[in-house]
Design brief:
5-stranded parallel beta sheet; 17 helices; 6-stranded mixed beta sheet; alpha/beta; Oxidized Rhodanese, domain 1; 2 domains; Rossmann fold; 15 strands; about 450 residues; globular
Length: about 450
């Protein structure tokens, strides 16, 4: 097939039927929508061009730069399309955690502005929240920048309604179960609405990451508050998963189906199968049900992510060493915690605690617990994985913004022999409590 433009190659991605001997379901056929076969490597190609196309001529005539808030796939798509169309892309990011992606963006001529590193614990008071930052930048210099707003523009789900959803229906007809990992939530909103319009019985499932875990392009429950178009009522269920499940699903798809998708597609596949196995047990009769998931991006840019999530896969001799990210969920859930009142009492005791604030440096600088030390969560994880970095003669209290990310660190430190706790209320609530106590005193 001959194309006259790479833009024409966006969409109309293949649909692959997953063999029954791979998924093991008796009454459900499983299909993968191979979005990683878009020309720039992901489902985000659709919205990158879809949100840009009506503004391309204006940007060319005025010299405005398309601005996108992204750490990976949308940044790649906007950069590639902008480079092709003669525009200068401007990427606003927080951590840009993937070296391969950063190099790709630089090769495509993108300007990258990385804000002071934020953590996995969102902070609504941080002026360097990258979405708010990009909006302010464009509002202050509207003659220089044009915002490609994947998180708040209602055209995001509209694009998926008109393309992704229609393509799935054209290939399969009525779909019973639709799964995708939530980032902007545009795919599940748009394609899900199209499938439900054709079949009101279609069930739509969103997949998120568990707190303290991440998948490229996916978000945790606490991070979804940043997404303006997100509507939790749209979903029949929202299911959480881990890094290890993402890489396990990715590896099964790679090895058993030849699907070269990345960890986000792996996470969607893994969590989908677990849910479908529950559903499959309650089905009977001859009717075949149909389930679809989105294999959203390629694996190559994320091998560093996979290596960190599953280091044993890359070691010559498998290691049995326990790591922060591989700590069993039951241990994390049972991690001891202390509330604001309890921490105050610990400060008043003879053996005062060491408080480790896991937020980014900027959040710490604008407000923290007196006497605490600041070690950002990504660095803290490496330190704990490599040994015992703290003295063991005093209690340790790990603190993040909301009290969720800190739980995993407290649980892991307990396994290392520390008397460790998580500050359940988070730093913000503790500071308010402390200020109120001072006011009363």
């Amino acid at each position: 097939m001959i194309y006259n433009s790479v833009i024409d190659m966006i969409g109309q991605t293949p649909m692959l039927k997953i063999p029954a001997d791979v998924h093991g379901l008796k009454h459900i056929d499983v299909y993968a929508k191979l979005e990683y076969m878009n020309p720039y490597g992901s489902v985000k190609d659709r919205i990158a061009y879809g949100l840009m196309k009506d503004h391309v001529e204006e940007m060319k005539n005025t010299g405005k730069k398309p601005v996108i808030v992204s750490n990976a796939n949308t940044a790649k798509a906007v950069s590639g399309i902008s480079h092709y169309l003669g525009l200068q892309p401007y990427i606003v990011s927080n951590k840009m955690p993937y070296k391969e992606v950063r190099n790709q963006l630089k090769f495509l001529g993108a300007e990258i502005e990385e804000l002071p590193a934020l953590t996995q614990c969102p902070n609504p008071f941080d002026p360097n929240d990258m979405i708010q930052y990009a909006e302010r930048m464009v509002n202050q210099s509207p003659d220089k920048f044009h915002l490609i707003d994947q998180f708040g523009d209602s055209n995001n789900p509209k694009i998926h309604f008109e393309t992704t959803g229609k393509e799935i229906y054209d290939d399969l007809g009525d779909v019973d179960y639709f799964f995708a990992v939530l980032g902007t939530s545009g795919t599940t909103l748009g394609a899900g609405n199209y499938l439900r319009e054709k079949n009101p019985q279609t069930k739509v499932f969103g997949v998120i990451t568990e707190t303290g875990h991440n998948a490229p392009g996916g978000r945790s429950k606490s991070e979804m508050w940043e997404v303006g178009i997100f509507n939790p009522d749209h979903y029949d269920e929202i299911i959480a998963g881990t890094k290890q499940q993402a890489t396990a699903g990715m590896r099964e798809l790679n090895s058993k189906c030849g699907v070269m998708c990345g960890p986000t597609g792996g996470l969607g596949y893994h969590r989908m199968l677990e849910k479908l196995r529950e559903i499959d047990k309650g089905l009977n009769g001859e009717k075949r049900h149909k389930a679809v998931f989105i294999a959203c991006d390629r694996m190559e840019p994320y091998m560093d992510y996979v290596q960190k999530a599953c280091p044993e896969m890359f070691e010559e001799k498998p290691s049995n060493q326990l790591r922060v990210q591989t700590l069993p969920s039951d241990k994390v859930q049972n991690a001891p915690s202390v509330d604001a009142e309890g921490l105050m009492q610990m400060f008043e005791s003879d053996t005062k605690p060491l408080v480790v604030d896991t937020r980014g440096a900027f959040g710490y600088s604008i407000g923290h617990i007196q006497g605490s030390i600041n070690i950002q969560d990504t660095f803290l994880e490496q330190m704990l994985d490599n040994g015992k970095p703290f003295p063991q003669n005093q209690p340790i209290v790990f603190a993040c913004m909301r009290g969720d990310v800190s739980t995993r660190f407290a649980a892991f430190a307990r396994e290392q022999g520390y008397e460790a706790y998580s500050l359940s209320c988070g730093v913000g609530a503790f500071v308010q409590f402390y200020d109120a106590k001072k006011a009363v005193a």
